[in-house]
Amino acid sequence: MSFPESPAKASICCEEIEGAPPTYAMYEALKDSCQNNASYFQPDDSENGQRLYQGFITLIDHIDTVWPLVDKVRKIAPSYDFDGKSPGNGYRSFVSVVDSCVLHGLKLSRQVCSGRDALLFRKGYFVKEVESCSQLLASLGTCLHHLHTLISWAPPGDLFPIESHSPEELFSRADTINQYCFYGRCLGFQFAPSIRGILKGISICMAGFSEAYYSHGNLISSVWTGGQYLIDPELRARRIVNISQSASVEFCKAFWFLTESEIMRRVPSLMSTTVAVNKLITITPEPLVVSTLDGKEKTILPPASHIGLHDLNVRLISVNKRNGMTNETSSLPPADGIIFHCHGGGFVAQSSKSHESYLRDWAAKLNVPILSVDYSLAPQAPFPRASEEVFYAYCWLLNNMKEIGTTGKRIVFAGDSAGANLLAGCILRILECGIRVPDGLFMAYAPLLVSFIPSPSRLLCLMDPLLPFGFMMRCLKAYASPNSKGKEDKRTNKELTSSNATTPVDGNGFLKVSTSQEAISEGPSSFEEVSPSDLAELQAHKSGSERRKSSDTTISAASLQSEHTATGVSPTEDKSQQYVSDFLDRYVFDSDTDSEGRRFPIVKPNQSNREGESETSSTLVGEPPLIVDDGKDKKRIKSRLSEAATGIMGAMSSRFAYMTDSNSISGPTQEEMAVRSNLDSLIARSPSDEFMFCVPRDPMLSPYWADEKVLQKFPPLRILTVHMDPCLDDCVMFAKKLKRLGNQVEIDVLEGLPHGFLNLSLMAKEANDGSLQCIERLKELLDLENKACTSDNHL
Fold it and tell me: Which domains does the chain have, with CATH numbers?
């Protein structure tokens, strides 16, 4: 009997399709194949032969355990869907994950069966593959136990429990989950085949990057070790799980900011759609006066929470130059529509530039300008700073339609991940202020309940290569809980070792968090009514603020910067990007010219003794603390820059010594030693008490908590998400809530794609197809005809 290739489709995993074999037959086929192989290898006295025998017997046992558990979830999963046309929820996703594992095991078992008599049959290879698959099925069985607990906590049809239940309570009800199996040989088994290779490459890069980050910036060493992560999946799995549990948010920021490096910055211009306008617009922080729906005027203060007054950058992308657009002269009239966009990145990383790859294509196919906001990032600028800036940028847009090249007839919000969350919160602010509401909202894989309420889809982050559990929690803490204890991530070695000492030997560790508590967000609101005294105080602050650049002036229009003439780094831009770019540009790569006059990067020679080196230069080395001592930091950076510029022989010697001797590093801090020890450990340790923090129940932070009377005023909504998204249940429950209130809402759930797939649209066909579906939903909200661009669409 033939079965489909992995992964199994979540949209049909819970229904019996006419003409297709029943799902139970797939599990029985795996058992039969495993029994056949077990009988074959039982007489084999070799070590690998006996391990293969035991591996197949263990697989049979796990199938018998998992089947009744998954069958119960399979039967109830359809009742949690948004509607019959859009099947999708966390329970359905987990059923498809288990089915995908069974399909993977069936394919593997049949490969063994067909090749075991061959002279060159690789027993050692298949031993590891079979054992990995067995561990994978065992871990999924534990996840299914957790799902059964979640079912008992929530009423039928609800994906979130009504009563307060913490993840700690959930995880205490079943055995711990072995996460290593999700990041080793079976990495990406639940995704489309074209995505698996990309995810594997990203995982290898993450593991190798951690070597550079925690080994004093030695990129040669990280490349050397990256080869090990390529050929040794078990080593890679151990490193990634330990990174997820031990690395701080600064590591997450630094790794994600690799997409902002100079090399990656050039990719969109080389591979994406060509656009005529791609400019940064700097909005100076001054009060804005906007008209309300009842004809009155309202003054909007610039954002000032946490980091004070700062310029705000927005990026304008358009396939055509239009009359009036940033002082452009063109025969084309302004467009009727405009896309107001916010990028994702976990609230802590990335920018409009890193999302330019798909924004260019959107601008071309929609033939309308796109204005993307480069909001400030946590932890330097936690909630509500980014939310305030997005609202402020929208108010600026309302007053500058002509400069953006639009009449503003149709304004549509569009955002992915964290950006979608910020746009939903922005609409709440708009409704509260009584100004013009956008004509539509498009959200891609949006986190809409920023809280610790457990749900089935959130368990998917335990196996997500792009959004591991630890990464997600650290980003959440950095953005939503800035006043929590230990927010500067300056843990001492004593704290780390004492935390680890209390960890069970077999514990994989989960975040210990308190239940969600209501709290009032700090910082001034950027849309309050202001008095004349407030304006006077603001003006005085503007003139005397040391945070402002000396060149700032109080002008009413925005200052414009082209992509090639923008000067320096924005004050609100995170320093992690500088660490990466400075290191690559100044200490690793140089450039030369080939015979055709083209410049190409080369490795710089040893510059450790270069005179006149700036002691304040930053590199991607070690873990940058949020608050540092200037003298010590300068010495540390200078020392690390010297190490980073060592030659290839020195790097390989260092790596050889590391592999053959101990993990000691010359001159590290106690904190770095503790983190390095965690990253190289054989057992994943539990996170320390730094994860016990409270998240305010604020609708601006979690739009799902907004008052129903306010939600009824939301514009038409289109949500696009994926079955393997940890935020899937947020999207489904939010859509259900709006539908119940009578709002116009539709949801699409795509197969085989990960959270953040839009950033992969240039690398995988499935991801590009998902981006095209986003365009179709945006066309609906823009009220555009589904047709090719008109004849005026020229460059």
Answer: 23-170 (no CATH), 262-451+525-554+695-782 (3.40.50.1820)
